[in-house]
Amino acid sequence: MSKKVNIGLVQMACSADVEANVQKAIDGIREAAAKGAQIVCLQELFTSLYFCDVEDHHNFSLAEPIPGPTTDRMSEVARECGVVIIASLFEKRAQGLYHNTTAVLDADGTYLGKYRKMHIPDDPGYYEKFYFTPGDLGYMVFDTRFARIGVLICWDQWYPEAARITALMGAEVLFYPTAIGWDTTETDPAVNQEQYNAWQTIQRSHAIANGVHVVSVNRVGREADQQFWGGSFVANPFGSLLYLAPHEGETVHVQEVDLALSDRYRTTWPYFRDRRIDSYQPITKRYID
């Protein structure tokens, strides 16, 4: 028996105007809903430019509580459109304590909870450790009207452990709100292509290893020295691409997926059955030496 769900992806370019970004996201959600979407995922930190390219204390003013004003607006839109919304935001938890967080709103507008990004990068152009405390809620799944979903965020996508644990919690789809792009000062196109290929490949591998659909939603456009590469996609439980967005240009796409396919792939390629959980204790060490 099939279990079909329509998933909406909103790939946006952002500006310094927070209100304009929020309104653009709302317009994208409404467009996706009009196309039949039931679950809509926005990109990472969609309310602003990707501010983590610099360490600037003024950027903390972009943060807000969760639940808070933006989740309240998203709740209204979710209820209006009858869709689940996955909304990535800059969370102010307390004075001096901030997280990179994704909120989930159910199709009736109910706030279901939030996931705080566990893996925080600190690389040129991605100085997130300056802003974000690592997540302390653990990995999360959310029982929405249409599916049990798992949410991870950007840098989490490079860690097989995060995908595995979330899938073992029963996630039927893994969602990755993302902000990643090319360094415009890089002159070798082969380097840029290799980076993009690795980004897509690692996430498709999570789909294969866990027998679940994977949805990655990236931002697009030039911001400072970053050219965000878009390329949002949906992969089936064996890693095949069902949809691939362009590298340039905003887009709203709705993709039908059949969640019942997970059972077929997991019985044909029974990775969960054959896991040797008695042998994995060393994975909890930083390095085995």
From TrEMBL:
<keyword id="KW-0808">Transferase</keyword>
<keyword id="KW-0012">Acyltransferase</keyword>
<dbReference type="GO" id="GO:0033388">
    <property type="term" value="P:putrescine biosynthetic process from arginine"/>
</dbReference>
<keyword id="KW-0378">Hydrolase</keyword>
<dbReference type="InterPro" id="IPR036526">
    <property type="entry name" value="C-N_Hydrolase_sf"/>
</dbReference>
<protein>
    <submittedName>
        <fullName>Acyltransferase</fullName>
    </submittedName>
</protein>
<dbReference type="InterPro" id="IPR050345">
    <property type="entry name" value="Aliph_Amidase/BUP"/>
</dbReference>
<dbReference type="GO" id="GO:0016746">
    <property type="term" value="F:acyltransferase activity"/>
</dbReference>
<dbReference type="GO" id="GO:0050126">
    <property type="term" value="F:N-carbamoylputrescine amidase activity"/>
</dbReference>
<feature type="domain" description="CN hydrolase">
    <location>
        <begin position="5"/>
        <end position="259"/>
    </location>
</feature>
<dbReference type="Pfam" id="PF00795">
    <property type="entry name" value="CN_hydrolase"/>
</dbReference>
<dbReference type="InterPro" id="IPR003010">
    <property type="entry name" value="C-N_Hydrolase"/>
</dbReference>
